[in-house]
Amino acid sequence: MTEEYDVLIIGGGATGAGTARDCARRGLRAALVERGDFAEGATGRNHGLLHSGARYAVTDQESAGECIRENMILRRMASHCIDELDGLFVTLEEDDLQYQQRFIEACRSAGIRADAMDPEEALRLEPSLNPGIKGAVRVPDGYIDPFRLTTANVMDARNHGAVFHTYTEVVGLIRESDRIRGAVVRDRRSGEKREIRARVTVNAAGIWGQGIAALAGISLTMFPAKGTLLVFGHRVNNMVINRCRKPSNADILVPGDSISIIGTTSDRVPYDSLDKVAPTASEVDLLIREGSRLVPSLAETRILRAYCGVRPLVADDSDPTGRSISRGIVCLDHGQRDGLDGLVTITGGKLMTYRLMAQKATDVVCSKLGIEAPCTTAEVPLPGSGSKEGLKAGRMSHKAAMARLGTLAGRIPEEGEMLCECEHISEGEVDYAIRELGAGTLSELRRRSRIGMGTCQGEYCALRAALRLKAAGKSDDFVKKDIMDFLDERWKGVRPVAWGEALREAQFSSWLYEGVYGLGRDGSEKEDAQ
């Protein structure tokens, strides 16, 4: 079996989805392959910070400038994915107050609004702060939901003809003489292999891009910098809180949706361990200890889960943590760099700059194909963004859907059962995610709707949502196994913080599903269950 396109994109994170959108909007026949689900890698494993660029203003002016420009663009074209909160960079008693002035000057040099504030005023705006702060600076930070953002890019790309293949792994690149002509892929569910041919192939696989380049015999050395984060059980702070110092561990607290996230650590991990990284007890302790210096109440706030991701940094062996490596964008035309035409790598950057990364990659693709078409992704809103005039919401679940889906919430009926009380997710929103967003498992529903992301971590909503999958045609055996797979995946994040309320909740979930519903860890019904 062979498919043929103008461009094949490898990687279904925000950058890959954004590249597919840009290519499709410029009239290219585009296909994207992703070995798992959309936003399953680094895109879905960050703190969701809508970067103003201030964090990098002192150490990386190029990245800071890119961030603030994209920040302003995303506020216009991805409004339903964004919570415009503003942020505070605060100086603690043990920090050098002189750094604050240097920070403000660097921000303004990069085009970032940075206003010094009296500590008392900062405490009035953000009561959760350490009352002993001795300085504060207000910047245009915010929150952006990476799952909604990626899904919206996929939707728009599909609307313009792009084709997507999830759970499809690249096992080889098709090389003819000194040119890449596409890829050999394997369906991870059926095991079937086939060729997808393309005039240009874009490697947008993030940290896994090193392995894709190796399939072409190209050396691309990445720096796998693991970062661990904690999710707290409620929204602790009103604004994004940063520590006013050079980037370090546990110096960002981001409020988003119904929770707050503290991050992050940064440690180099072996490249061959990318699929096995997990939070450690020492990282959890560090995040709680350092985070509590910013917001003292974190020491006593329930932690829902811990998770980690690996940053797609281009290697620099001089820094073992990766903190000093530029977050700038790296776009490589391997025809010019390595004499192997038809292959482009787009990597580096941040979630904040995904659209710009996609634009740079698409510009190279169009240049190679002799196509002159302007980029429109900075002007045309994503599906869901735009005016909500005329939309009405009565029930709480529909108000929550409007916050998550924007104008697309008009496609969801108000009637129907509430499936998730934690996040106010209705039966209609879940059915919409299954029907129109391609969610075929509970984990996919989580990424499309936030099912299982709330306080109970799927304790009640997993079974209810699974019944909607069954109503959509999934078999009993599939649904039973999917429930247990989903709860096991949730447990991976709870395990590093399994004490107090988190442990009691996990034990109750186990009792409920195994003792009451009779589901075993293999997904089968227990023989003695009645």
State the shape.
Answer: globular
Q: Total number of β-strand segments?
A: 22
Number of domains: 3
Distance between the termini: 48 Å
What share of residues are in beta strands?
A: 15-25%
Amount of helix: 25-40%
Q: Regarding CATH, which class of the largest domain? A: Alpha Beta
> How many helices does DSSP assign?
15
Structural class: alpha+beta
The average pLDDT is 92
Polypeptide structure, described:
- α1 links the parallel β1 (2-10) and β2 (30-33).
- This protein has 15 helices and 22 strands.
- 54% of the residues are buried.
- It is globular and about 65 Å long.
- The N and C termini lie far apart (48 Å).
- α1 (14-25) runs parallel beside α5 (146-159).
- It has 530 residues and is of the alpha+beta class.
Core attributes:
globular, 22 strands, 530 residues, eight-stranded mixed β-sheet, alpha+beta, D-Amino Acid Oxidase, Chain A, domain 2, single chain, nine-stranded mixed β-sheet, FAD/NAD(P)-binding domain, 34% helix
Quick structural gist:
Helices cover 34% and strands 23% of the residues.
SSE topology sketch:
Layout: E1 2-10, H1 14-25, E2 30-33, E3 49-50, H2 61-77, E4 82-83, E5 87-91, H3 98-109, E6 115-117, H4 119-125, E7 135-139, E8 142-144, H5 146-159, E9 163-165, E10 168-176, E11 179-187, E12 193-203, H6 209-215, E13 222-232, E14 240-243, E15 252-256, E16 259-263, E17 267-268, H7 281-294, E18 303-314, E19 329-333, H8 334-338, E20 343-348, H9 354-369, H10 396-405, E21 418-420, E22 425-426, H11 427-436, H12 442-449, H13 461-471, H14 476-494, H15 500-516
Parallel strand pairs: 1-2, 1-12, 2-9, 5-14, 12-20
Antiparallel strand pairs: 3-8, 4-8, 5-7, 6-7, 10-11, 11-12, 13-16, 13-17, 13-18, 14-15, 15-16, 19-20, 21-22
